[in-house]
Amino acid sequence: MFGEVYDVIVVGGGHAGAEAAAAAANMGSKTLLATMNLQTIGQMSCNPAMGGIAKGQIVREIDALGGYSGIISDKSAIQFKMLNKSKGPAMWSPRVQSDRMRFAEEWRLALERTPNVDFYQEMIQGLLLEGNKVVGVKTSLGIDIRGRAVVLTNGTFLNGLIHIGDKQFGGGRAGEKAATGITEQLTKLGFESGRMKTGTPPRVDGRSLDYSRMIVQPGDAIPEKFSYLDTPVLTEQRDCYMSHTSTLVHDLLKEGFDRSPMFNGRIKSIGPRYCPSIEDKINRFADKDSHQLFVEPEGWDTVEVYVNGFSTSLPEEVQFKALRSVVGFEKVKFFRPGYAIEYDYFPPTQLKHTLETKLVENLYFAGQINGTTGYEEAASQGLMAGINAHLKLNEKEPFILKRDEAYIGVLIDDLITKGTEEPYRMFTSRAEYRTLLRQDNADLRLTPMSYAIGLASETRLRRMEEKERRSAALVSFFKKTSVIPEDINPILDQVNSALVKQSDKMFKVFSRPNVTMGHMMELKAVSDYVAENDLGREEMEQAEIQIKYAGYIEKEKNNADKLHRLENVKIPDNFDYKKLKSLSFEAREKLEAIRPVTISQASRISGVSPSDISVLLVYMGR
To answer: What is the per-residue pLDDT across 227-249, written as a single tens digit (0 to 9) for each?
Structure first.
């Protein structure tokens, strides 16, 4: 069956695995996607949504690089929202509510349409090794499949254990068995492993809910989309709804706390700090009388509903009794109860920035195996692992995104240099250059890079270049064109801005905080220019941001340039930190373990102080 040797074997068909397989194959590698169930490729194991705060920026970046997540999200969206629109553009974050079944179907079809991708359904139980190099995988049936590189994207399946109250059973997801063998082999090879926990809420029958008693949560009046390509824009949307817990609900949940695996010691691993279970919220925020619940439809046609905010591992009868006391849920019927799941992960400080392991050559880890949480974080790692596996096999330079180039760069750098002891989730606050890393300019930042390595298509590059040219021309128009007081003062009066006494350049007036593109479009010269050049929303938004935030953008670019000087100071591969007695003991220990490639990376390691960096710089002759 497997006489040929694959270039890349991807283990796992979730968000990381699907992106890894697509990237490697689209770059020209003969790729095998091996998964335990071909019917669950691209499965949304938890909430039926993509994007959100910082996560939406990651989806845009994946799309700009030539990945599939943005395209799939657009094709299966049922609602679109741009979050944080009341704040500056660095904080704007796109999010879609997805049709869960269509999302998975679109992923499966997209991969089937991708040349160079083969599929095989079976559990992978181990790796084939020659010395310290991976040369393939071994299946549970004992079949050896040879491959020049392997990407592990096992999600929550490695020795997965599901908890519902005092019941527990093996599984990687509800109704699916756990994966065994890989953790045991890797730990024998010298890898450090750990356990993490995540959870999911009950799924309920939407026909049993009283939406009239809830608060409606509609999508944006003018919905946008994720992909920079010609994917569909929503013409109709499904509403979501909001309800709240109460002190009665909390009291009913507390009745089951003695049987909660969270509190009775059955679960010893750490769960996601920023997506806690309902019992954890009640326990940690005892002063709060209620918590928000978001009622999210699972698709266009299904009646299944996801109760966002009610993640729990309490006994099923406790979940049911408490949820029936929530407004609008008085007659609720369960499709399935919520549960918690524990699984193995491998601290990501054991990886290089390419996501290749330091111990085993040509072996890559991506997704929850690295201690992250979230579809978007997983998908971006899968994409980068697939890219770098292909590049290494073809003896090309690795593709590593810097912290000022992409949220993906921040994510991977955080994992490699700092590690994580709890499920890692991306936030805008983690990025020190977030004014540069906006969701609107991901294509301008990343598509040329991806095209240069052979992933992003020429179509993407030409679209990006045209957008850049047209938005720059609009900025130039504002810089060159003057406006007279009689035309602009009525607009300035509307927004309580100081009136002008003589003609001034439009650029200067537009730079004022309260003046928007909408206001400028009231000027005939601007509306005529936009109409004559057939400018779209993206180009106009890009021009507005470039004008209004020019100072902030320039300042961040200067700060990034300073950082790049340290990036250029390389640390030799086998550098002996023990001989530098001036380094603190903690710094020597951390630097020996992580082995940073540059002084800049060393400076971001927790426990390495500025004085330790000074010692290194002196030693390097700087």
So the answer is: 999 999 999 999 999 999 999 99
Asked whether residue 489 is marked as a ligand-binding residue, the answer is no
Structure tokens at 556: 């961040």
Over residues 448-461, mean pLDDT? 97
Does 277 belong to an annotated binding site? yes
Name the superfamily (CATH) of residues 568-619: GidA associated domain, C-terminal subdomain (1.10.150.570)
Q: Residue 555 contacts by C-beta under 8 Å, 6 or more apart in sequence?
A: none
Q: Is 450 annotated as a binding residue?
A: no
53 is in an annotated binding site: no
Say what percent of the chain tops pLDDT 70: 100
361-380 mean pLDDT: 97
The structure tokens listed for 415 are 């994992």
The backbone torsions φ and ψ at residue 56, rounded to the nearest 5 degrees and listed phi first, read -65, -35
Q: Is 272 assigned to a binding site?
A: yes
278 annotated among ligand-binding-site residues: yes
Q: What pTM was estimated for this model as a whole?
A: 0.93
Kindly indicate the confidence band of residue 449, based on its pLDDT and cuts at 50, 70 and 90. Answer: very high
Q: Give strand ranges (E) for 124-172.
A: 124-130, 133-139, 144-152, 161-164, 167-170
pLDDT digits (tens, 9 = 90+) for 138-147: 999 999 999 9
For 74, the enclosing helix (H) or strand (E) is helix 69-76
Tell me whether residue 14 is annotated as binding: yes
- In the chain, where are the structural domains located? 1-456, 458-554, 568-619
Whether residue 537 is annotated as binding a ligand: the answer is no
Query: Is 126 flagged in the annotation as binding?
Result: no
Residue 423, annotated as binding a ligand: no
Tokens of 267: 């679960």
**CB within 8 Å of 621: residues ≥ 6 apart:** none
The per-residue pLDDT for 421 is 86
> What letter does residue 231 receive in the DSSP assignment?
P
Ligand-binding site membership of 56 (annotated): no
Q: Is 155 annotated as a binding residue?
A: no
175 annotated to a ligand binding site: no
Tokens of 308: 């966002």
The reply to whether 336 sits in an annotated binding site is no
d(CA 407, CA 604): 16
CATH superfamily name and code, 1-456:
FAD/NAD(P)-binding domain (3.50.50.60)
CATH architecture designation of domain 458-554 = Orthogonal Bundle (1.10)
pLDDT tens by residue, 319-352: 999 999 999 999 999 999 999 999 999 999 999 9
